[in-house]
Design brief:
single chain; two-stranded antiparallel ribbon; mainly alpha; 153 residues
Length: 153
């Protein structure tokens, strides 16, 4: 569901969309992982972290005979990993209100710097997460047939 109104300047509301749409991405990754985990040449238990599930999915796709659909899904998985990394920056970095107005988000960890400070930037991330979730939902539908066709070769 697209964000109905993004011109409100509400960083907190925008963060809500980031959280919800990131959950959609994680759900789709879990579904894709369910299809691909048995094809991973280097399984590492049953990872609960989405980034590790993405790595497993990408290894599985690389191990299967390449089909165009599988390569597209592998690319989508890489993009999802980047989106979730950005989600982590936005969610886990404190947002401070400045005395004269505006905000400052101090990124924690080695990256440091300032990102996702305005509602506009945060809404843009939410929209990218929604697009990523949509692509991965389509992937989970295409995966069974793509795997079957790849293994028939």
């Amino acid at each position: 569901m697209p964000i109905p109104r993004k011109d409100d300047g509400d960083e907190v509301r925008a963060m809500g969309y980031v959280a919800v749409y990131a959950a959609y991405v994680e759900e789709a990754i879990e579904d894709c992982y369910g299809h691909l985990k048995r094809h991973d040449p280097r399984p590492n238990g049953d990872p609960w972290q989405s980034s590790r599930r993405i790595d497993s999915c990408r290894r599985a796709i690389a191990a299967l005979p390449i089909r165009e659909t599988l390569e597209e899904i592998r690319t989508d998985m890489g993009l999802a990993k980047e989106l979730l990394r950005d989600r982590n920056v936005a969610i886990h970095s404190p947002l401070y209100g400045l005395p004269g107005g505006g905000n400052l988000r101090q990124i924690r960890g080695p990256a440091r710097g300032h990102r996702f400070e305005t509602a506009e930037e945060i809404y843009a991330l939410a929209e990218r997460l929604f697009e990523g979730a949509t692509a991965l939902r389509a992937a989970k539908v295409r995966l069974p047939r793509a795997i079957h066709e790849a293994l028939r070769r």
